[in-house]
Write a structure and sequence with these properties.
about 500 residues; alpha+beta; five-stranded mixed sheet; three-stranded antiparallel sheet; 22 helices; 10 strands; flat
Length: about 500
Amino acid sequence: MALACPDCQVVSRRIHSRYRRKMADTAVGGQPVVIELSVRRLFCDAPDCRRRTFAEQVEALTIRYARYTPCLLEVLRAVGLALAGRAGARLTAVLAAVVSRVTLLSLVMALPDPVLPTPRVLGVDDFAFRRGQVYGTVLIDCLTRKPVDLLPNRHGDTFAAWLSAHPAVKVICRDRAEAYGQAATAGAPAAIQVADRWHLWHNLAQAVERCVRQHQRCLREPNESAPDLPTPATQVRLAGQIVAPAGPEGRYADRTRDQHAAVQTLREQGYSLRASARHLGITVRRVRQLVRAATWQELVTDRWQGRYYLLDPHKEYLHQRWREGCTNLVLLHAEITERGYVGSYNSLCTYFRRFRQVKGRAPAQPVPPSAGEVTAWLTRHPDGLTDIETQRLKVVLARCAELQAVSGHVRVFAEMLTDLAADRLQGWIAAVLADDLPGLHSFVHGIQRDLPAVTAGLSLPWSSAAVEGQVNRIKTLKRQMFGRAGFLLLRKRVLLA
C-alpha cells in the first residue's frame, strides 16, 4: 500500500525496512494493555524533500514519536490537568497506566494554548502567587464566566499591553485599584469601566467602621450611681486576701483525689485490682498505689515538696499589689519582669485563676457593643438583624446623632446598589459632604476620583462575581500543587482544566 510523505506529501511505494513498535493503551479489566505493531519504513523519492525515509502511521492508533495510543494519551492529559504531578501519578497507578509525575507534567505543558475569542465584557482581578509578596492577574470573560488569560504580575503596563493587543474589549469590570483603572484607560480608552459593587460596599463598610470608632464613646452606657453591692473588681481584690491552702492543688491533685475515692469504693464493693483498673481505665500498678495509700495526699505531696517555681520569689509582691487593687495581669507581668521574673505570662494567669473564682459577685454591667458589631449592624439588611441586635442598635443611634446620620447614608447607598439607581449618586455625595463625618468623606472622595466607573457600576448589570470565583479556583489549584507550581504550569491548568 502506498503512503504519502509527511513533509512533501509525495506518494511512495518503496519499502526501506520494517521494525516492531510497542504502544501502551488503556487498561482492560484492570490489566495494562500493550499493542505490538510491525511498521514499515518507506523511501521518499521526491528529489527536493529533505526527508529520505519515513515511518508508517496507523490512523487513530499511533502518533509520531509517541509510546501511547491517542486514547491513553487523552486520559493521561486529563489526569495531568485535573491532578498535576504527584497526585496524578498515584491515580495512573490505579488505572493500570503507570507514568511518572514528570511525564504527566510534560504532557500538560505540551498542550497548545486554547484559541479563545476576545471577550466583549472582561473581568480583571489579582491573585496571589505568594500572599503579600508576588501577585498575578486573571482575566475572565464575564459572559461565559471562563478564564481568558493569566498575566504574570499585576502591573498596569502588563495589563495595558494585553488590552492594546485585544481591541475588541468593550466593558471592563474591575475593583477599586488605581493600577487597573489607569491601565484600562491607557490600553482601552474607548471601553467602559465598571467598578464592582461588592468592592464598593466593602469600601463603604470600612468607612463606616472608621466613623464608629471615632464615636466609640457613644457605644457605652452613661454613668449611673454606684450600686450598694461591691463591684466584681472589689470582690476579686478581696479574694486575693485569702491565704492559699497548704495542701496540693492542680489537675494532678484533683485527678488523684478522685481516683483514690473511686478505688476505695470499688474495693469495698469487692472488686479486684484488675477489675478496678478496667472499670476506671487505669493501670493495675496505679490501682495498687491508690489502695496502699491511706490518704490521697500521700501520692501527690512529694510532687510539690522541694520544687522551685519561678513565681516563688515574687509571690509576696504579687499578693501585695493584688490587695492594693491592681488586678491587671498584663501590668503585673510587666512589673515582675522588671524585678527579674523570666517565666511566661500563662504561668502567672494559672496562678491567679483561683483568685478570680469568687462566688456571690454583684451583677455585672452589660458589655457595650464593639465597633465591629455596630458596623455589622449598620451594614446588614434590617431584616437580617435579630430583635436584640435591632434594639441595641436603636439605643446606640439614640445616643449619637452622627451615627444616626451614618445609618441613613448607608441605607440610601444600599438602595442605590440594589436598584442600580446611579442617578441618585450625586445627591447622596452632596448629603454626605454636608454632614461632619470625616470617615465617610474619604470614601466619597475616592468615589469622586473614580466617578465614571462607579456610575457604571451603579447602572450596568456587570460585576466581578465571576472573577472572584476563578480566583478561588486558582487558590485550589495552587494548594493542590503545594504552592510550588510555576506560572506557565498554573496558566495551563487554569485555561485548559
